Structures are given as C-alpha cells and as structure tokens.
Amino acid sequence: MTPEPTRAGNRLAPAGRLVWRVALAVALATAGHTSGDGLRAAAAPEADLSNLVARLRAGEVGERVAAAFAILRRGSAAHESFPALAKALTEDEALDHAVAAGALYSRPLPPPAAAELLPALDHDTKARAPAAWELSRIGPALPPEAVRALIAALVYPDKHERNFVVAALAMSGAPARDLVPGLLAVARDPGVADPPQRNYKYPRATAAIALGLLGADAVETAPALLDLLQATSAWEYQRAASCWALGRIAPGLPATRAALERARQDPSAIVCRHAEYALQAAAAAAESSGTPDVERLSQTLASAPSRIDGRVVAGLRALGDFAGNAAPTPVKGARRSAPLVHESIALALGYLDSLPRPVGPDRTIAFVAQEKSGRPDAAVRLYIMALGGVQQGLAPALLEALVQGERDSRVQAARRLGALGRAARAAVPALRSVLPDDDWIVRREAMLALRRIEDPDRFIR
C-alpha cells in the first residue's frame, strides 16, 4: 500500500514522499473535473458497490478518491455503502480533503443573509464562530459593512472563531488594502500552547491562503510568507499554504522561486506537493503572458466544463443526512461522544439539509444558550461539534480546492480578463453569465474580474 501522511502529520521517507505526491496528484486530477474519464468510468452503473467499498480501504490515493466519488455519484441508491464511506472519511485524511474540495462552497449563501448574521458578531464566541462560518459562504458578494465587522472581530482570541473570521474575509471581494493588515497579523501570530483555544495553527494557515487569494495586490506580504515557509517547526499545512500563496502573490521574485525549490525537498509531503504546484502555476502564468484574446476568453467562460459534479454534491447531501441522523460514536478521552459528521460532509455542504443552520442572531443565540446549558438537543449538539471538525479541515480543503481551481480554464480566463480592466468590457456578459456557477472559485474570479473592469479604481492600493 502507498505510504501516506496520517492525521498526526507523520513524515515520509524520500521515496515514500515521491510516491505519495504522484498518487495524490492522480487523485486530484481524477476528482477535478466532471468530464474526467476516471470519474465516469468509476461511476459506471455496472460497478459493484461492494468492490467500490473495498477500494476505499486499499490501493493508492487516486483509486480511493475515485471509489469515493463513484459511490457519491449514486446518491441515496448507494445508502448501504454509507457506513463504510463515513468511516473511510474519518480515518483517511487525504480522502477526506479531496472529497471536501470537490464540492466546497458549491452552493453559496445569498447576500441578504449577511444582515441577519451580523448582529451575532456582537455576542460571545459560540455565537460569533458559526456566524462567521455562514458569512464565509456568501463569498465576494459579502457587503462592505460585513467586511468591516469581520475585520473588527479579528481581535477576539478564540482559535475557532478567528479561523472562521479569516475564512470569511478570504472569501470576500474586499480590496487588499483593507484586508492585508489584519490577515498578516493573524498569519504571524502563533498564539500560545496553553490554553489550547489560543493555539493559532489553524487560523494562521487559513490567513496565508487568504493572502494568496489577493494575488499580486498583496505583494508586500511576500517577505512574511517566506518567513512562514521557512519556519520548519510550523504546522505543515501552514507552510503548504505559504507555498501556494507565494505562487499567487510573487511568482516572479527570485527569492520566491529559490524558497519553493528548497520546499520541494521538505520532510513534509504536503509542503513538497504545494511547492511543486506553486512552481507549476508560476511557469504556466509566464507562458500565458501574451496579449489576451477577449473573444476567445469569453468563449472559454461559456463552454469549458465545470470541476463541480452536481451528482457528487447530491451524494454528499445524502451522506450528510445519513451522518447527521446516525447514532453518535464514543471517542476515547472526549467529554462527549462524537457524531458521524466529517469534515468533507460539513465543509462541502455548509450543513445544508444535514445539519441545522442558525441563520439569524436569535436562532444562533438560542443554539448557544442550549449548548451552555449542558443539555443541548441532538440538533444543537451535532451543529456545535461538527463546527469544531470543520475548523480543523478548512485550510487543507481550501488548498485542495484552489489547486484544482488553478487548473480550471474558466478561472484562468476570468483572471486574465480582470487583469485587462476596462479593455475587457466586451467580456462583461460572459462574466455575468457565470456568477451563479456551481464552482465558488469561478464565481469569485468572475465577480472580481467584473469589478476590475467596471470599477478599476477600487483596486488601486
């Protein structure tokens, strides 16, 4: 069996790292596009469910991911395999993150929900954390007053809350000049080991991703990201996130390339892989630096296939319903039993249809009051506990999704059109046509491109 990192983040020997990197690259390629032959073959009706379940436990990462997606594409018809799939997602970190990345933010929360959620940011951590998570699902349509409230909320010290606030800012379309100071402060803050709620390894990784999403507008953060990458004692996903961010922010700097080349030999397979992806992305950007053809890029937006598979999303919803209603399982050493709700389910769906979602401050506060009472009902317990699992998987799943997005021709087209500014006015109808797209990365890049075309002064630092 191919060696792989576990949830404890063990190190691999060099040969094992190489095999792992190749296997996971295959996994992402398999899971990345609806039109991929691997997914279609794996999901063929004649495929036997018992064989798919067996493949969840054996073989390379690419084979396990293909089996999981094949089961999910069958939706509720594959219900008998859900216990095995839920167990596999719990125990297999690479599988869990790949599945989450395949549908993360595939259904956004509508912008009007922001007004209902903002008052919850004035309450305690247990109210602010879920409110920030829900705000992150609105994406670049998040209104300016919500961005300001989230930036103000960065002062609170809880690691869960800080992570979700950073995620909401990362998803927003706010200009770099508004976001860089707060995000950079989070990325640099390691917190303390005790109390555990102020150990900031998760929000630091998410903050590096958020800076990377700002692209070249955040070039001033490159020295700090280089320092984070070279901090070998840091969490491997924080350093991996720094690789990705450097590849987006400052791919042409000699210091960036040198650091990424060194990171290709890192003891962590995750860091190696993202250093490789960042170098590949930098090379691809250099090759496509010619004069863009607005008409051709507009056609790409209209005709290229999506990486989001609707049947996989529906299958995750069915799996989430199964997990949300399953009996909790004991966890050794935990104060409470953990429900069968996993990062991939919760992240990908935002708890849609499988967990109650506290939209609005009154309902959020009621959830918190129940949780504090020590006698929460089943729905509240599932929501609060699943939220904790999501915060641990958020940065890894975001990284997986963004790597897939970098390969999407529609993402590249929208980005190049946005870089043209007003010269790409003819592409406005095509960009507007993909604003309701299933893929949150496409939605985000299209909205940012429209803003750069229609209101370029907003992005001048």
3D architecture notes:
The protein has 24 helices and no strands. Mean pLDDT is 81; it is low at 1-46, 333-339 and 351-356. It has helices at 14-32, 37-42, 49-56, 61-73, 82-91, 93-101, 113-117, 125-136, 144-153, 159-171, 176-188, 201-213, 222-230, 236-249, 254-263, 269-287, 294-303, 310-325, 343-349, 361-373, 378-406, 409-420, 428-433, 440-454. By secondary structure, the protein is mainly α. The protein is 63% helix and 0% strand. It folds into 2 domains: 1-106 and 308-355, no CATH class; 113-307 and 396-459, Leucine-rich Repeat Variant, CATH 1.25.10.10.
CATH superfamily of the largest domain: Leucine-rich Repeat Variant
Number of domains: 2
Shape summary: globular
What's the count of strands? 0
Beta-strand proportion: under 5%
Main sheet attributes: strand count, strand direction, barrel closure: none
CATH architecture tag of the largest domain: Alpha Horseshoe
CATH topology category name of the largest domain: Leucine-rich Repeat Variant
What is the number of helical segments per DSSP (H or I, 4+ residues)? 24
Quaternary arrangement of the chains shown?
A: single chain
Percent in helix = 55-70%
Mean pLDDT: 81
What is the N-to-C order of secondary-structure elements (H for helix, E for strand)?
A: HHHHHHHHHHHHHHHHHHHHHHHH
Distance between the termini: 51 Å
Poorly predicted sequence stretches spanning 5 or more consecutive residues: 1-46, 333-339, 351-356
Structural class: mainly alpha
What is Rg? 21 Å
